Automatic annotation (TrEMBL):
Subunit text: Monomer.
Location of the protein in the cell: Cytoplasm
Source organism (scientific name): Hydrogenophaga laconesensis
Classification of source organism: Bacteria, Pseudomonadati, Pseudomonadota, Betaproteobacteria, Burkholderiales
Catalytically driven reaction(s): 3-phosphoshikimate + phosphoenolpyruvate = 5-O-(1-carboxyvinyl)-3-phosphoshikimate + phosphate; dCMP + ATP = dCDP + ADP; CMP + ATP = CDP + ADP
UniProt keyword Disulfide bond, yes or no: no
PROSITE patterns: EPSP_SYNTHASE_1, EPSP_SYNTHASE_2
Keyword Acetylation: no
EC number, as in UniProt: 2.5.1.19, 2.7.4.25
Domain Enolpyruvate transferase: 17-444
Signal peptide limits: none
Active site: 332
CDD domains: CMPK, EPSP_synthase
Name of the protein this chain belongs to: Multifunctional fusion protein
Major place of residence: cytoplasm
Length: 683
């Protein structure tokens, strides 16, 4: 996940490949609650691991439900069978509507029947999301429900610690025209108390987002509860209902998350050698309403083939066709249509989307504001949005997209990186995608391609112990870029030579046959990088490589042209989306001469010796400053004076002498320089 202030997505050109989606949020949180309320245990597979499911899991654990990860990856939920092991709790539910609403209903009923008391709260935005219609319905049932701040909004207190009789004889009336989640919450909760007689729910107003109710009904059935449905106005839960675990249940991939990749396949040319985008884990037999996004995407021109559990998407009509669509049936996925509209041949109108205004943010306002930043003309109304794309490529703007702590805004606007002006897009607070799709951007980058020159590289070259590695790692971390520590590759060649019994003594390196053998050794290095670790032939050699003798051996083998040539491809392969920070001696001069920014980092030899001394001592390695100073001067001299790719500043490098700076200041200087070179320097 990109837990950084902003992520700059370079202009993207094509897409292709297969992705497997994370589990559906709607199904995951419903299944978790149903499993917790059932008799027996349930093993759940393919559960979404995200902020919202973590919130639900934490709440269930605090309510006394036992949760055990299984060896096969399933999560075992031991159901409490409608009992109340914990009578009082304060639950924090973040911004997870799929936890807040169903838990409100279930806990209100259980607290009323058994004499419990619960407080449910969330982040400030959750306290602005209306829940009054559900509160009204629960009060009709005789549940003591108190809104602790503003009437009709969380935080809530459920129950008053005393048991009360529930009034189940009359149909419970609930509004269906603001959010279908209130009805879902009641449908999930009422089987807990429908023992003696049937319990009916009557929907007031036109029920919106019906497909979400279908998911609820489908899952209730899987957990042994049948609900009679009369149209979309009346639902009856039979007397004697009781949740029973299905034993094992798989969560299908999230259809709303699929929408970004369906749109991607529709608007991006297929990467040569691929056949467009294939999505696994969700398909045409999905029980999720957002699967109907497929129809909407087809209307806009997407070429989509589907199977039960898989979708295959290619660009069809281009530009996409503008549409005028009632999106009430796909409220979440419809946001993706708003971004597809930026690539359409006219004005697209998405209507009947009033519910967007009470989601994670006011989504109509958010989509309009951010689309305008890109150069689109947007009209918004109480329940619609109308988008006209920028008229010409030159009318597009490089925009820094504000994401309003809304995962869908972030994911939608990433697709603006396919703009015809080839401008990058900045996504602010990219970690907000953790709500439903923590690895969204990683997945996107896996299947997207762009000409190599579009992938930015920052080179950091300089003498040993100047702080290149430290600085590069921090800059890469803050930008979400990949990191190439090229010195490690030369250190590995030194180590591999030692293991193979090949001399790295300077006189031997002059022998052409010996040099060739070292080159072959370098070409066949079996190395893997796992986070901070370097694995050589399966063995963790991270610490072995950091010794001074490994550095000296590296310095010697690095003067061999065959070795340098052999490591070329490996280094180039690090240039991947969204960008690279490369640290070494010849990054800016030889390996990435087209790098967007080059820094030549220096510090006085004495300073560097002191730093290296501290570094070694802190790792428990004995060292002496005079010896280190002599070694680093010898290493620098060899690196500077060798024939092949000597250490020197590239002509266009920015010089940074950090002798008088601490690490933070050096990093900030480089980040400031970088910001000045991005398309967002005014942001
Ligand atoms: N600006 C700085 N101020 C003080 N100490 C620093 C600074 N930058 C780096 N250091 C410290 O100096 C030591 C050497 O830094 P680092 O290993 O990053 O250097 P390097 O240039 O990558 O060395 P090499 O080329 O040998 O790999 C580290 O302990 C690091 O914490
Ligand atoms: N691009 C590079 C990087 C390193 N070297 C040589 O490897 C030695 C070890 O590098 P460290 O950065 O890990 O200290 C270094 O002294 C260089 O001789 C290189 O040639 N080119």
């Amino acid at each position: 996940m990109f837990a950084i202030p902003h992520l700059d997505i370079p202009p993207l050109a094509s897409a292709g490949g297969t992705i497997r989606l994370p589990g559906s949020k709607s199904i995951s949180n419903r299944v978790l609650l149903l499993a917790a309320l059932s008799v027996g245990h349930t093993d759940i597979t393919d559960l979404l691991d995200s902020d919202d499911t973590r919130v639900m899991l934490k709440a269930l654990a605090e309510l006394g439900c036992r949760i055990e990860p299984q060896a096969d990856g399933a999560l075992r939920i031991h159901g409490v069978g409608g009992a109340l092991p914990v009578q009082r709790a304060k639950l924090f539910l973040g911004n997870a509507g799929t936890a807040m609403r169903p838990l409100t209903a279930s806990l209100a009923l259980l607290a009323t029947r058994h004499g419990g008391e619960f407080e449910l709260s969330g982040i400030p935005r959750m306290h602005e999301r209306p829940i009054g219609d559900l509160v009204d319905a629960l009060r009709q049932l005789g549940c003591p429900v108190t809104c602790l701040a503003n009437e009709g909004y969380p935080p809530l207190r459920l129950g008053d610690g005393q048991p009360h009789a529930l009034q189940l004889e009359q149909p419970i009336r609930v509004r269906g025209d603001v959010s279908s989640q209130f009805l879902t919450a009641l449908l999930l909760a009422l089987p807990l108390v429908a023992q003696e007689s049937d319990v009916a729910i009557e929907v007031v107003g036109e029920l919106i987002s019906r497909p979400y109710i279908e998911i609820t009904l489908n899952l209730l059935e899987r957990f042994g509860v049948n609900v009679r449905r009369d149209g979309w106005e009346r639902f009856t839960i039979s007397a004697g209902s009781r949740y029973a675990s299905p034993g094992r249940i798989a969560v299908e991939g999230d259809a709303s998350s699929a929408s970004y990749f369906i749109a991607l396949g529709a608007l991006a040319p297929a990467t040569p050698g691929t056949d467009g985008i294939t999505i696994e884990g969700v398909g045409l037999s999905s029980i999720q309403g957002d699967i109907r996004f497929v129809e909407a995407a087809r209307l806009m021109g997407a070429n989509i083939a589907g199977e039960a559990n898989r979708l295959h998407i290619r660009r069809g009509t281009w530009p996409l066709k503008a549409i005028d669509l009632d999106c009430n049936h796909i409220p979440d996925a419809a946001m993706t249509l708003a971004v597809m509209a930026l690539y359409a041949d006219g004005t697209t109108t998405l209507s009947n989307i009033a519910s967007w205004r009470v989601k994670e943010t006011d989504r109509i306002a958010a989509m309009a504001t951010e689309a305008r930043k890109l150069g689109a003309s947007v009209e918004e109304g109480a329940d619609y949005i109308r988008i006209t794309p920028p008229a010409r490529p030159q009318d597009w703007r490089a925009a820094s997209i504000h994401t309003y702590d809304d995962h869908r805004v972030a994911m939608c606007f990433s697709l603006a990186a396919f703009n015809p002006a080839h401008l990058p897009v900045r996504i602010e607070d990219p970690k907000c995608v953790a709500k439903t799709f923590p690895d969204y951007f990683e997945t996107l980058f896996q299947v997207c391609a762009t000409p190599i020159e579009n992938i930015p590289v920052i080179c950091v070259d300089g003498p040993t112990a100047s702080g290149k590695g430290t600085l590069s790692a921090e800059v890469a971390e803050q930008l979400g870029y990949h990191l190439l520590d090229s010195g490690v590759l030369y250190r590995l060649v030194g180590l591999a030579a030692e293991q193979a019994g090949l001399s790295t003594a300077e006189p031997d390196l002059k022998d052409p046959a010996h040099a060739r053998r070292l080159g072959e050794l370098a070409a066949g290095l079996r190395v893997r990088f796992e986070g901070q670790k370097t694995l050589f032939e399966g063995r963790d050699v991270t610490d072995d490589l950091r010794t001074e003798s490994a550095g000296m051996a590296a310095s010697r083998v690095s003067s061999v042209a065959e070795v340098r040539q052999a490591l070329l491809g490996l280094q180039h392969a690090f240039r991947q989306l969204p960008g690279l920070v490369a640290d070494g001696r010849d990054m800016g001069t030889v390996i990435f001469p087209d790098a967007r920014m080059k820094v030549f980092l220096t510090a006085s030899a004495e300073q560097r010796a002191v730093r290296r001394h501290k570094q070694l001592i802190s790792k428990g390695i004995a060292a002496n400053i005079d010896g280190l100073l002599a070694d680093l001067k010898a290493r620098d001299l060899r690196d500077i004076s060798r024939t092949h790719a000597p250490l020197k500043a590239a002509e266009d490098a920015l010089q940074l002498d950090n002798s008088g700076m601490d690490i933070e200041q050096s990093v900030q200087q480089v980040l400031d320089w970088w910001q000045g070179r991005t398309a967002f320097s005014g942001s």
